[in-house]
Every structure is written in C-alpha cells, then in structure tokens.
C-alpha cells in the first residue's frame, strides 16, 4: 500500500516527506514499546505509535522503517522532525486512536508483521 | 588484523545521546557494504545493548570491531551486575522503572532480542562487578 493511500485512509496530516508519498509498505506494526518494534519488525513496515520522542526515530532507523504514523494527534517536536529528516523518513499524525488506526488499515488490506521470525 | 576497531563509551542515564553509538556503527557498516539483513540484526543488538547500558548499568563501553570473519560487539560495564541471568534472559522480565517505560523501553525484550539476532551470544555477569556481553555476526 502506498503512503499516500495510508494518509488518505487515516485522514492524516503529513509532517515530513511529502515527496515520498508514492513509496510503498507491505505491512504495519503498532506499538508504544520500542523493544517490541525491534523484536518484530522486518521488511518494509509502517510504524503506528502513540509514543513521541527521539527514541522512536532511532528505533525506526535501526530496523530501516521509513514511515511513522503518530496516533491520537500527537505532534513531534522540531528536534524529532529534524532527526527523521536526516534519515529520509515520512512522518504523519492522525486524530484516530491506535486501535482505530490499526483497524482502518487492516480492513483495507494492510496486514501485520505476522509470526516472529 | 581488524579492519575497524573502535571503543565507544556509554554513560548511565544519558537518554539524550542514547542510540548515537548504534547509529554510528550502522553508518560505518553500511559504508562497508554489509548486507542489509545482517546490518539490521547488528543494529538491533547494538541499540538494545546500548540502551541497557544507559538504563541499567553504571556506565560502560562498546568495543566494535570488524575483521574478515565478521563483526564483533564486546560490551562491558562497571556494575551493578545481574543477579539472575536466567530471569534476565526471559522475554517480558524487566526491572526498568515506570519513568523508563514511558519512554518506550522496559518491555523485557532486549536481551532475548540480542540472543536471537546475534550469530554468537555470550553473557557473563557478577553482582558488584559488572556485566560483559559478547556478540558476533558472520559476514558472508
Ligand atoms: N547492563 C546491565 N546491567 C545490569 N542489569 C541489566 C543490564 N542489562 C540488563 N539488565 C537487567 O536485565 C533485565 C532484562 O533486560 P532486557 O534488555 O531484556 O529488558 P529491559 O531493558 O528491561 O527492557 P527492554 O530491553 O525491552 O527495553 C533488565 O530489566 C535489568 O534488570
Ligand atoms: Mg533492554
């Protein structure tokens, strides 16, 4: 699914990476725990999270995640945005909760990461 | 003769620069042309171990080296040590305080994550002395 489609479905505001909306992801992972992200994520995966700090960007960088959706209208600070820019990431925010965000994307065909490798 | 040998210091409670060592290691290995799947495993391990130094240790070092055989991370800290290693290696077991949890850590997944992602993993710990972790990654 393209990032553009994801942004549309979630009525999300794109904060960073407007030029990368045609990029695709194959699956998504929702979590506020960064070690869980590190344990489960592989491949082209979208991160959905209610946690907003520098560690989210760093964690995504470690597992090559290129797009992060902050839920519940959470706004990243300028420092967080700058750090994400250095890593060529796309950042967006949606007013939906984590549960609803996940449900909307799942019901539109974006699957989860599946059983851990 | 190692191609690269660097020692990074990691300070206790330094959440501001936490992850910078791992980002540096990742950049260095990327430049060397290390395969992206292997690089992801190394990055997960270095990031988990770096955060453990910040969160749980009194401070320590990450000794990063690359030679023909692969990549080695040797991590040493100066305490407090882990009383029960079997418990610490268990998924979901954590002594991280609530303040650390609100930052997104303390799921009790770090050590098992390292063990799963490293090709070789060894941990030794002595209470009152410190913890030493050795991780090796083979390069094809
Ligand atoms: N370097 C260390 N020094 C002392 N204790 C440690 C060290 N590393 C880990 N521990 C202990 O082992 C426990 C498990 O570590 P692990 O990395 O698996 O989980 P965590 O750090 O608590 O949470 P997470 O890694 O998911 O954020 C820690 O909660 C801590 O009690
Ligand atoms: Mg940990």
Describe the 3D structure.
- The complex is a heterodimer of chains A (117) and B (140).
- In chain A, 36% of the residues lie in helices and 20% in strands.
- Chain A has five helices and six strands, in the order αββαβαβαβαβ.
- In chain A, helix 2 (34-40) links the parallel strand 2 (27-30) and strand 3 (45-49).
- The mean pLDDT of chain A is 96.
- Chain A is an alpha/beta fold.
- With 140 residues, chain B is of the alpha+beta class.
- Chain B has one domain: Heat Shock Protein 90 (2-Layer Sandwich).
- The longest helix of chain B has 21 residues, at 36-56.
- The two termini of chain B are 18 Å apart.
- The mean pLDDT of chain B is 96.
- Classes of the chains: A alpha/beta (117), B alpha+beta (140).
- Bound molecules: adenosine-5'-triphosphate and magnesium ion.
- Magnesium ion binds next to helix 2 of chain B.
- Magnesium ion is lined by residues 48, 51-52, 110 of chain B.
How is the topology of this model organized?
The complex is a heterodimer of chains A (117) and B (140).
Chain A (H helix, E strand, L loop, with lengths): L2 H7 L3 E4 L10 E4 L3 H7 L4 E5 L4 H9 L4 E4 L7 H9 L3 E4 L4 H10 L3 E2 L5
Parallel strand pairs in A: 2-3, 2-6, 3-4, 4-5
Antiparallel strand pairs in A: 1-5
Chain B lengths: L3 E7 L9 H12 L4 H21 L3 E7 L3 E8 L7 H4 L9 H4 L8 H8 L2 E7 L3 E9 L2
Antiparallel strand pairs in B: 1-2, 2-3, 3-5, 4-5
The structure holds adenosine-5'-triphosphate (ATP) and magnesium ion.
Keywords, separated by commas or semicolons:
heterodimer; A: 117 residues; alpha/beta; Udp-n-acetylmuramoylalanyl-d-glutamate--2,6- Diaminopimelate Ligase, Chain: A, domain 1; 6-stranded mixed beta sheet; B: 140 residues; alpha+beta; Heat Shock Protein 90; 5-stranded antiparallel beta sheet; 5 helices; binds adenosine-5'-triphosphate; binds magnesium ion
């Amino acid at each position: 699914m393209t990032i553009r489609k994801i942004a549309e479905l979630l009525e999300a505001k794109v904060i960073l990476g407007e030029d990368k909306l045609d990029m695709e992801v194959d699956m998504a992972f929702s979590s506020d725990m960064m070690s869980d992200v590190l344990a489960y994520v592989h491949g082209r995966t979208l991160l959905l999270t209610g946690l907003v700090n520098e560690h989210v960007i760093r964690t995504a960088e470690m597992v090559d995640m290129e797009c992060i959706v902050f839920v519940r209208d959470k706004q990243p600070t300028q420092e967080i945005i700058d750090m994400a820019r250095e890593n060529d990431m796309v950042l967006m925010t949606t007013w939906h909760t984590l549960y609803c965000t996940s449900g909307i994307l799942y019901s539109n065909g974006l699957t989860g990461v599946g059983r851990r490798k | 003769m190692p191609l690269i040998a660097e020692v990074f210091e990691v300070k206790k409670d330094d959440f501001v620069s936490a992850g910078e060592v791992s980002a540096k290691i990742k950049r260095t290995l990327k430049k060397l042309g290390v395969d992206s799947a292997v690089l992801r495993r190394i990055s997960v391990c270095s990031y988990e171990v770096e955060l453990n130094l910040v969160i749980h240790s009194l401070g320590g070092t990450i000794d990063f080296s690359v030679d023909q055989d692969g990549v080695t991370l040797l991590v040493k800290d100066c305490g407090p040590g882990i009383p029960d290693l079997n418990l610490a290696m268990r998924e979901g077991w954590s002594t991280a305080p609530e303040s650390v949890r609100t930052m997104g850590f303390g799921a009790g997944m770090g050590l098992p994550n390292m063990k799963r992602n490293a090709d070789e993993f060894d941990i030794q710990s002595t209470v009152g002395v410190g913890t030493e972790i050795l991780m090796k990654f083979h390069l094809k």
